[in-house]
Amino acid sequence: MERIYLDHAATTPLHPLVLNKMTEVQKTTFGNPSSIHSFGRESRKQLDDARSILAKSIGANPDEIVFTSGGTEADNLAILGTAQAKKSLGKHIITTKIEHHAVLHTCQYLEKEGFEVTYLSPDDKGEISLDSVKAALRPDTILVTIMYGNNEVGSLQPIKEIASLLEAHQAIFHTDAVQAYGVKSIDVTELGVDLLSVTAHKVSGPKGIGFLYIKTDTGITSLTYGGEQERKRRAGTENLPAIVGFSEAVLLAMEGLEKKVEFFRHLKDTLIKALESEQIDWSINGAENSLPHILNISFPKTDVESLLVNLDLVGIAASSGSACTAGSVEPSHVLVAMFGSNSDRIRNSIRFSFGIDNTEEQIVKAGKEIAKIVRRFQN
Q1: Taking residues 177-186, what's their average pLDDT?
Q2: Ranges for the Aminotransferase class V domain (predicted)?
């Protein structure tokens, strides 16, 4: 049985060239980048080169890149670091109800510490309006954190417009770009953001490595202590093999970005057409202006948990986009925010997400298998 992986929004397979690069570093470069001897200098050179590649990928300066253990740590550093640095200026934070839990849970923690958080609601397409941000903004707002592209339904947010709104305000602007990085062309200067989170394993890089872009002169308090690595913003010996692997993955991802985006859109259209040709009931969750590799679909008269199990039995890996806890699939907080807690969509929606290793033939086959399973439920 051919297995078809359609869960690239969760994680992507490691690219073979990235693995080769990481293996080479593991074999030949073991020095601590902070050491001044030749072994350390060799490691430092590779670290600096990787940092420059990653900075260039978003139009930043190398000294604005802080390596982290992934997107979750980058989000935590952005939010907690800003809260600690700016609390004397106010304790109000603005975010949305459809953020990744790395943002939501961090904001919930800060509420327990005396901060006030405004959670903006999306429309039924998963979009946050500029007016809602403007209405929530207060003189004591110190941070606005809104994701670039949603990881469950793919909806894109007006990041550039929000940044323009905040130009004359004290609030720091952070965006979680974990899902958008590698499929959207990002220039932080053009976007106008102060902080931006990224992880490697969404772009065929290794797990356990990411970075936080921190705009020059943006004050942020470190959350780790013990060394002066990352310009005192994140202590700890750098994970050189993963960092070099990350930079290699990014070079590969940026090399043919436009073609890749076109390919993902083609795969999305192929699955839509395949489902349109079948006699089943379904509809798309999310906005037309969305990430090219994510397609979230509601299948009326079905159950998400049963759907996922049946899809897996025929070799198709997909996701509900929500967390599995104690063997049960919890309703997606994103879909609840979009449609309400009583909507059937929160119990019958599946996320399909595409990658560079998928083929058109796989998608056509997946469409037919999905339709067979859904038809059994709906009949």
Answers
A1: 97
A2: 4-363
